[in-house]
User: Fold this.
Amino acid sequence: MKNRLKPLRTERGWTQEQLGQALGVSRQAVNALETEKHDPSLDLAYRIAVLFARPVEEIFDNPHA
Amino acid sequence: MFGLAKTTLPAHQRYAIRTMAFMAVYVAINVMAIGGVFDRIIGKPIAWALAVAVAAPVIGQIWATLSLMRESDEFVRAMTAKQFIVAMGLTMAVATIWGFGEEYAAAPHVSAWLIYPVFWGCFGLVAPFIRNSR
Assistant:
């Protein structure tokens, strides 16, 4: 799923490891999200949205829109 | 904030420790059997207890893998499940081909217990190529 996770992370100066810790997931999971190898669950997508204080749709493209 | 959340690294460490423990039991029982420790019971009904004892670590390993999935994040869980399914399918295909090979093509008989190491061989073969959850 196309997303803007990497630019959001890098503009805050966070590593994948740090973002993973903040979200409660592994660095591999963050990398998989950024490289579109994993579509997040609704729960994880909302956690990411809360962390970056943005609506989910601003971070993840809705493939059905 | 960054230091408080749980990562999956401890889950992998626990999985590695559990795997080594179960494999040690599996190998130890087989080494003892090969060494003749159980020779007095071989061929007797009580030898079924030995067969079950060797299989117990196999069941333990399945538990260890399910624990890894339960204790990991959603990406690791999905990827591990996918790796398991593909490895299991490959193992069943190999076993089916060989089984019918024995029936129809006079292939030499292979002991059924080999399916366990074959499964892990298949898992090791497919795991590096399955790096996404889809």
Chain A has one domain: 5-55. Residues 18 and 54 of chain A are 19 Å apart (CA to CA). Chain A has a mean pLDDT of 96. The interface with chain B takes residues 18, 20-29, 32-33, 37-41, 44 of chain A (CB under 8 Å).
